[in-house]
Specification:
Low-confidence stretches: none
CATH superfamily of the largest domain: Dehydroquinate synthase-like - alpha domain
CATH topology of the largest domain: Dehydroquinate synthase-like, alpha domain
Oligomer: single chain
CATH architecture of the largest domain: Up-down Bundle
Strand order of the largest sheet: 6-7-14-11-10-8-9
Number of strands: 17
Distance between the termini: 64 Å
Helix content: 40-55%
CATH class of the largest domain: Mainly Alpha
Radius of gyration: 25 Å
Shape: globular
């Protein structure tokens, strides 16, 4: 076995029982973390609790778990409180599949017995409630109040799905790389009172209409495609269609399409009846790697891009790479700009992997696309978990976007695709870094130019830098007073956010005058 599997949940949920059975099925090692601690310490867990207290035990547990991760992968039954340590929990989510096992309280009590050897048994319900947010941050939640065969089947399916978790406590969700045929199961699990599918005219034929039929949707809203239609009028169409279908707060909106569809459907969900649930089914590269994850929703105004919106996280994101087969080449390439951005934010290894896969990506190789998309989603999930509402660190995801959004808005949201504008913005970001004294910036810019060009993306930012674009920088939503929060790149994996005066020339020189 080449990947870790971790079983979490309250005492009595069946972690050790399922863990042993899974290890046998997967031909893997099995480790019971509590048993290992008892072996290393030469004392039962209950004795450690009694003699040293819970805080000391948790420190021992964290140390044992971290040392365990230095070994080859295994199936691991964790202690009931192991995942209460945030840093350790996030690490487990990164390196393997974390499954939370649950059961009814009466089932847990029956399995625990008198609890004489199980510390904290008497506080079972209170402890489980206090740990609810921690337990929610996982790749799947599995009830063990069923037959062993059913539990095993669900666990194996979750492991095989290899989803990316977006850990946000009770609002956590998964980004599953799956076939769209599984969508009815996903939506059904939400027990919706009605389903509203939102798509656009380009996507409706191949994907939107068939998905709406499979879901038994109450109504389907087909929007006009394109960034120029990302308006309040489009949101009103979704609201009205949902209300005409008698939607209540149990309704679920399903967005099937690119970033415009996802942003509009998400904003409609955030505001309809003061908030209903929604599911993202992105069908473009750009939406898969960026807009479908993180909960940013909204629409454009004449003043600029995404200036009205809300944070509203989806319940689930399902990425089916097969939907890219109907995407025009230019749209596929445009979405790769966000993949490049994510790789540069991530690490040297991520950038090198993109450079090696560039030809395969342009040739639409599904394996290469899957790798690139997954890396981008994992990076975004990590950043969103640290800063959901862009109060600080999440701003790094705007690398290339300040100048990119300005160019996009200056051209009326129709002449330049969003991804193409981001590519130009990435080049501009290195110009800013150079203007601020980074002597490495020209070399980094040259490398970025080469990578973007190999992915068929534009790099001549000077051709787009004019007075219209400069003026739109002043309307950027990241503006604060007389400056704008600008993401300054260094080498791959190095980035900082700095306030740049709006009158700064951003390393691009005076803009061309436009009448």
């Amino acid at each position: 076995m080449d990947a870790w599997v971790f079983l979490s949940g309250p005492m009595g949920a069946g972690k050790s029982t399922l863990g042993r059975a899974l290890a046998e099925r997967l031909d893997a090692r099995f480790v019971d973390l509590d048993a290992r601690i008892e072996e290393e310490r030469g004392r039962p867990i209950a004795t450690i609790f009694a003699e040293e207290g819970e805080a000391a035990f948790r420190a021992i547990e964290r140390d044992a778990a971290r040392r365990l991760l230095e070994e080859p992968p295994a199936v691991v039954a964790l202690g009931g409180g192991t995942v209460t340590d945030v840093a350790l929990r996030r690490r487990l989510l990164e390196v393997g599949t974390l499954l939370t096992l649950t059961a009814k309280v009466e089932t847990l009590r029956a399995r625990i017995g008198d609890g004489a050897t199980r510390p904290l048994a008497a506080e079972l319900e209170a402890r489980n409630a206090a740990r609810a947010d921690a337990y929610a941050e996982c790749h799947a939640t599995i009830s063990t109040d069923r037959s062993e065969a059913e539990v095993m089947s669900e666990a194996l399916a979750a492991i095989g799905r290899d989803a990316v978790a977006v850990p946000l406590g009770a609002r956590s969700y998964r980004v599953a790389f799956d076939h769209r045929d599984r969508l009815p199961e996903v939506v059904s699990a939400l027990a919706p009172t009605s389903v509203i599918v939102v798509t656009d005219a380009n996507v409706d034929g191949p994907w939107g209409a068939p998905i709406a039929e499979a879901l038994g949707a109450s109504t389907r809203v087909v929007l006009d495609p394109g960034e120029e239609h990302k308006t309040i009028g489009a949101v009103e169409r979704i609201w009205d269609a949902a209300l005409d279908a008698s939607a209540d707060r149990g309704a679920v909106i399903v967005a099937v399409g690119g970033g415009v569809v996802g942003d509009l459907a998400g904003f409609a969900a955030a505001t309809l009846l003061r908030g209903v649930r929604f599911v993202q089914v992105p069908t473009t590269t750009l939406a898969m790697v960026d807009s479908s994850v993180g909960g940013k929703t909204g629409f454009d105004r004449a003043h600029g891009k995404n200036l009205v919106g809300a944070f509203h996280q989806p319940e689930h994101v399902l990425i089916d790479v097969e939907t890219l087969t109907t995407l025009p080449d230019v749209e596929l390439y445009a979405g790769l700009a966000e993949v490049v951005k994510s790789a540069w934010l991530d690490s040297e290894a991520a950038v090198r992997a993109l450079e090696e896969d560039a030809a395969a990506l342009v040739a639409r190789d599904s394996a290469a696309l899957g790798r690139a998309i997954r890396r981008s989603v994992r990076l975004k999930a990590r950043v969103v978990a640290l800063d959901e509402r862009e109060g600080g660190w999440r701003r790094v995801l705007n690398l290339g976007h300040t100048i990119g959004h300005a160019i996009e808005a200056a051209r009326g949201f129709s002449e330049v695709r969003h991804g193409e504008a981001v590519a130009l913005g990435l080049i501009a970001a290195f110009r800013v870094a150079g203007a601020l004294g980074d002597e490495r910036a020209p070399a980094h810019e040259a490398r970025m130019r080469s990578l973007l060009s190999s992915l068929r993306l534009p790099v001549d930012v000077d051709a787009y830098w004019d007075t219209r674009a400069r003026d739109f920088v002043g309307a950027d939503k990241k503006r604060q007073g007389g400056s704008v929060h600008f993401v300054i790149p260094g080498a791959p994996g190095e980035v900082r956010v700095e306030g740049i005066p709006l009158m700064h020339e951003f390393g691009l020189g005076p803009p061309r005058s436009v009448e």
